From TrEMBL:
Domain Peptidase M16 N-terminal: 17-140
Domain Peptidase M16 C-terminal, chain residue ranges per copy: 176-353
Protein name: Pitrilysin family protein
Annotated signal sequence range: none
Entry's family note: Belongs to the peptidase M16 family.
Domain of life, source organism: Bacteria
Keyword Nucleotide-binding attached: no
InterPro entries: Metalloenz_LuxS/M16, Pept_M16_N, Peptidase_M16, Peptidase_M16_C
Keywords: Hydrolase, Metalloprotease, Protease, Zinc
Pfam families membership: Peptidase_M16 (PF00675), Peptidase_M16_C (PF05193)
SUPFAM superfamilies found in the cross-reference section: LuxS/MPP-like metallohydrolase
Amino acid sequence: MPLNYPLAEQTLDNGLRVVVSSDRAVPIVAVNLWYDVGSRHEPPGLTGFAHLFEHLMFQGSRNVQSGQHFSLLETVGASLNASTFFDRTNYFESLPSGGLDLALWLEADRMGYLLDALNQENLDNQRDVVKEEKRQSYDNRPYGDSYERLVRLLFPENHPYAHMTIGSMADLDAASLEDVHAFFRTYYGPNNAVLTIVGDVSVEDAFDAAKRYFGHLPAIPTPPPAPDGTIGPLTEVLRDDVTDDVPSDLITMMFRLPPDGTPELDAAGLALDVLAAGQSGRLNRRLVRDEQIAQSVSGGALPLIGGVSFGTLTGIASDGIDLQKVEDALLEEVEKLAESGITADELATVQAQAERDWLEQLSTCAGRADEISHHALLFGDPNRINTRIDQVRAVTAEQVQAAAREWIRASGRAQVTYRRTEDDGAEA
């Protein structure tokens, strides 16, 4: 089903790629800026730097005082935030269209002049904020360190995806102001970013505004390429068993998958969806509804572009049920899918679910801007937003089974289990 969202693209003289999608339906505009830097770009000893900058970028720049980025935009009715991932960092705001100039001016000021305000006090302050975030989101939350444990099992030491975006607190403690300035100069420049503007603005006015606010910023030297993370399927079982004060016993399995942008990754993602997506997934039907050995099951693919992706399956045991029963049932269904494949109805169901989720994501200016930046930065092709559903629909049942046979196997998985400290009398 071809989509036809309008797209116009220009590259400024300094290398900034600007993509505009005009949509005059409502007086809203979304500004979305993706930088080609994430945790996979961080060398050993500098982990957590991309995420640290997600915080530092709101602490002021040459013409903006600390905290003003949020306050100025919220005053004109904007919602805004930022996020860091393995492959990128993004900054975004959605606001009434009359605020477009303000949003672009603020983004340009911190792209060009953040270091004017990045002093030791700001660094120390935000380093403490990151430490507190790690305590709250990873260390002191039930199951909060599960992905951290899993990626350490799934990938060799110093693999670009072997550490989470939060990074090492020891690395952050050791970071000097000079280290942080050098990281910014390496990655945060117009020629290492994509700016997307979607909403109530003409194409011409949007490009004029982008040139006005960003065009004078100098390009940075070409950043070093991210290390190649190409690696094949896991061929052994690696486990991490944790006993802790958790609400329920839980198991998460993680599998290496093909890199994003390949039909094989689409097929592997659909295989995991057949197992774990929604009420119709095989695992939900068997473990939750029929056998009632699990409170819930979930899973899916996490696409990455650096030579490998990964996918997960998670089951939370029902009260009084030995977690081993959940593990055995998960593995049985994994092997059944690889050996017997999926039905035409199952394939149609998960493809329809993917289509619904995609259309929902594109239905807002903010969601569309984020996906345009995503595909422009990581694939060089913003028009993938209009063809993505066709790629998913082109996957066959045979391709799904082939991907499952190669990548999603009981004999090739990393696994973490959490069991409650107190034995509540689980069945043997």
